[in-house]
Design brief:
The complex is a heterodimer of chains A (199) and B (476). By secondary structure, chain A is an alpha/beta fold. Chain A contains 6 helices and 11 strands. Chain A has a single domain (32-195), classed as NagB/RpiA/CoA transferase-like (Rossmann fold, 3-Layer(aba) Sandwich). In chain A, a hairpin with a 4-residue loop joins strand 4 and strand 5. The radius of gyration of chain A is 20 Å and the shape is globular. Chain B has 476 residues and is an alpha/beta fold. Among the domains of chain B are: 40-286, NagB/RpiA/CoA transferase-like (Rossmann fold, 3-Layer(aba) Sandwich); 388-471, no CATH class. Chain B has helices at 5-13, 16-38, 43-59, 61-74, 85-98, 110-114, 117-123, 133-140, 157-168, 177-194, 220-226, 246-258, 288-292, 308-312, 314-319, 330-340, 357-361, 368-381, 387-400, 403-416, 422-425, 446-456, 459-471; strands at residues 78-82, 103-106, 127-130, 197-200, 204-206, 211-216, 230-236, 240-241, 266-270, 278-284. Chain B has a 6-stranded parallel β-sheet with strand order 1-10-7-4-2-3, with helices on both faces. Chain B starts with a helix and ends in a 5-residue tail after the last helix. The chains are: A alpha/beta (199), B alpha/beta (476). The interface between A and B is large, with 74 and 94 residues.
């Protein structure tokens, strides 16, 4: 008997009365000003939220950040934004991203209740780029902010990309005496640019 | 009993300031949880919904496991089944050896702690590095995690400084968390770059899609599996949920309950291996199907490992996670561990004041304190109580079951105990009195006072008598 057969048999030996799956369509929390709620939550988890009028305004906003001004190696997958000088598609091994200073990536949408941005590895050759860069910026259309996680999952499907992640703030730890330290293993900072007029 | 909680806790509480510090550190986390929970008007609805989803899943677990495997395989993952810890470890070793892995980075996985994977792999020449900062601290210290979410919560920053000084050559006497965390970052970056494979736990696995979700704040799971080509994910069979949409409920509850965050920094969804990589998912039973067979304890499988029951537990906070002698400590651990080995862990359900705070904070509504009480009965039934407890319980049931005997015992006690010298009362037979003074014995029993007041027709007098008696108690 294989282990699979044994485990399933052990579970089925004690049939349980069926119990219904609950309805997920409930009156979950909504916010009258989703972008503002999102920005507040993002700041509360150590991230930065910048509202910009259009995509063209992002470069100037980026230049205000010392981490970006001083960055030597930059990946930008947000079209037309930033002075990206590392082409992800030219890199065969993600280990070569070890000294990446800054990454600018497109976010799909965001969640007001927790300041999280959803991004996937669609068109991203190495998903490591979002975690190995010293600093991360995400570009997000400001009208793509949902109220809560239930609305978020209504938008998600997992057939097209193998990897997707909610990112809420920079990498952090509180494992030493509950003291919050920003920049554990991943990016030391996260800036989300919310573009008011994306087109 | 191999692991006696009270004996292990005695060592922990011997350092009184440290005990208070530990208590306060966890209460701080509990307070953050309260604030996060209160920020959502639908909190109770979320808990109820989560509990129902888990109850439903467990009622059809075999079907969902098969569905999950079908979908995961369709996405290109390889699925393995392990009946117990030994089989899990063999499977993981086999995968690693086939790929010639010499260095493995792990993100937090309580399951691999439960299976004692690290020492097993190390015996077979594979270097294992725990990459969660808290886990790395206890790994370097040669200890086990004392908490499932905050593995090094029992360490002070000075302790961490000393451990890092010894192993990572940080400055002697350094204790600044920022400095120490930066040193760990540099040290672990090297480990990430050298690793041949990454192993993660699983927070939730989705039957309808064949994917799974891993939650971290540090980003260590993502870094660990996005550099090497091989990803092994170990999960207990109870981690399953039916639909991706159910994650909306669980991700809202998990981090708020655990640390008071609105969500973890990274909630990563893995569906199949990455291009050019390999993904192995190991489904582990290791006693879970036995718990599932028990009407009394089945609900403990709802657990999403947030640690809220530990943070709130007055016993855990004051006795430390190591005093439980199990991978999962605290209230939930005291239910899970006896299910695995009641003789070895029989003292744990008694490490509880039945205050019920764990039940109140549990995000999936496990009736923890009821289950702890049920375990006490079960342990007595199986004849696993220590002799001292067996005898004192027998004596108590004899006295409490016979009103004459009870009255007589009360009279004798009131007459004799106040006259006894201290050493006759406060000795090792009186565990209760080791840290406490007995209350002052009243002159009369309640019955006697009641009778007296009925005869005199004066209720107030009785009340005054009680107040006087209470005032005479020595201050603790």
């Amino acid at each position: 008997m294989t282990s699979k057969v044994a485990i399933l048999a052990a579970i089925r030996k004690h049939p349980l009365p069926p119990r219904p799956l609950p309805e997920l369509n409930q009156a979950w929390i909504e916010y009258h000003d989703r972008p503002r709620q999102f920005a507040e939550m993002l700041e509360s988890v150590g991230g930065h939220c910048r509202f910009v009028e259009n995509r063209a305004a992002i470069d100037a906003a980026l230049d205000e950040a010392p981490a970006y001004r001083e960055a030597k190696k930059i990946v930008s997958l947000a079209e037309g934004i930033g002075r990206g000088n590392v082409d992800l598609n030219e890199i065969a091994d993600p280990h070569d991203l070890e000294d990446l200073d800054f990454a600018i990536l497109p976010g799909c949408f965001a969640v007001a209740e927790n300041g999280a941005v959803w991004m996937t590895d669609m068109g991203v050759k190495h998903r490591a780029v979002a975690f190995i860069a010293q600093h991360l910026a995400l570009v997000l259309p400001a009208n793509e902010i949902v109220d809560n996680m239930h609305q978020a999952y209504q938008r998600l499907e997992f057939e097209q990309s193998g990897f997707g992640v909610f990112i809420s703030g920079p990498s952090k730890t509180a494992d030493i005496e509950q003291s919050l330290v920003i920049g554990a293993h991943g990016p030391r900072s996260l800036t989300v640019f919310c573009v008011q007029s994306p087109h | 009993m191999s692991a006696d909680h009270a004996a292990a806790a005695a060592a922990f509480v011997a350092d009184e300031p440290r005990t208070h510090w530990h208590d306060g550190a966890l209460w701080f986390v509990r307070a953050k949880r309260d604030k996060a929970a209160q920020s959502l008007p639908e909190w109770e609805l979320l808990r109820e919904t989560a509990s129902q989803i888990k109850g439903h899943t467990i009622s059809q677990l075999a079907d969902y496991l098969e569905q999950f495997e079908r979908n995961a395989v369709r996405l290109g993952a390889q699925v393995h089944w392990a009946r117990n810890a030994a089989e899990h470890n063999e499977i993981v070793l086999g995968i690693l050896e086939r790929h010639g892995v010499k260095r493995l980075v792990k993100s937090k996985s309580m399951l691999t702690e439960e299976c004692h994977l690290n020492p097993f792999l190390e015996q077979h020449g594979i270097a294992v590095v725990d990459t969660d900062l808290g886990e790395r601290i206890v790994q370097l210290a040669g200890e086990a995690p004392s908490h499932i979410v905050l593995p090094a919560i029992h360490k002070k920053k000075e302790d961490v400084g000393e451990i890092f000084h010894r192993h990572l050559h940080t400055a002697a006497g350094a204790s600044d968390p920022k400095y120490l965390a930066e040193a760990a970052r540099q040290h672990l970056r090297e480990k990430f770059m050298e690793a041949d494979a990454g192993l993660t736990g699983v927070n939730f696995a989705i039957a309808e899609t064949g994917g799974f979700v891993v939650c971290t704040n540090e980003g260590n799971a993502d870094l660990g599996v996005s550099l090497p080509k091989l990803h092994v994910a170990s999960m207990g069979i109870e981690k399953l949920i039916p639909r991706a949409a159910d994650l909306g409920v669980f991700l809202r509850l998990l981090a708020r309950s655990a640390t008071g965050q609105p969500i973890t920094t990274y909630s990563s969804h893995f569906h199949g291996p990455r291009p050019g990589g390999e993904l192995h998912i190991v489904l582990v039973d290791n006693g879970r199907s036995e718990i599932l067979a028990s009407d009394e304890f089945r609900r403990s499988l709802n657990c999403i490992r947030c640690g809220a029951c530990m943070n709130t537990c007055p016993v855990y906070r004051r006795s430390g996670g190591h005093s439980y002698g199990t991978t999962v400590p605290g209230p939930i651990g005291s239910i899970l561990a006896p299910a695995r080995d009641a003789a070895a862990h029989g003292s744990l359900p008694f490490a509880c004041s039945l205050c019920g705070s764990c039940t109140d904070v549990c995000p999936v509504k496990i009736d923890l304190h009821h289950q702890l009480l049920a375990w006490r009965k079960e342990i007595a039934h199986r004849g696993l109580l220590p002799r001292s407890k067996r005898w004192s319980m027998k004596l108590a049931s004899l006295v409490l079951g016979n009103s004459r005997l009870y009255t007589l015992a009360g009279k004798l006690a009131r007459a004799i105990v106040p006259r006894l010298p201290r050493f006759m009362i406060y000795n090792r037979l009186n565990a209760w009195g080791q840290k406490r003074e007995l209350p002052v014995f009243p002159q009369q029993s309640f019955r006697e006072l009641y009778r007296l007041s009925r005869e005199q027709g004066n209720g107030e007098q009785v009340a005054t008598d009680f107040t006087d008696a209470a005032d005479e108690r020595p201050k603790a």
